[in-house]
Predict the structure.
Amino acid sequence: MELTDREKAIRAAAIIDTDGTININQFQVRCAVLMTQREMIDWLQSEWGGSVYTNDRQQADGIVRKTRYQWVVTTKKADKFLRDIYPFLMLKKQQADCAFDLRQQQVSLIKIPPKNGRNIHLQPFVERMKELNK
């Protein structure tokens, strides 16, 4: 059975709310999910693009842990992803709002060269996101 776009967004919102993060890294909006279930990670990538990373873990005592998989989407793809899932977010709506505010500010500052202090205008969004993610 094929999921509707609405059902996909609901599922993705639940994943972000429970196993994901919305943050700002180097003045870029970044959404990520880290889990041991590869199928969900591959599904997110197939629906919204982005990158998948694998992390094989071995403890100092030699015990091998389950492989973790991480899906990451940034900038425009992150913005589209967040807009798709926003109505269904329950726990991370404020982080999504902060991400939207940052993107809006970036659009208004696009004509200011970075060497002229563009990032100074974006720093409040970074601080706000850090506070929300505590």
Remarks:
- The chain has one domain: 5-132.
- The helical segments are 5-19, 38-48, 75-85, 93-109, 118-132.
- Residues 48 and 77 are 7 Å apart (CA to CA).
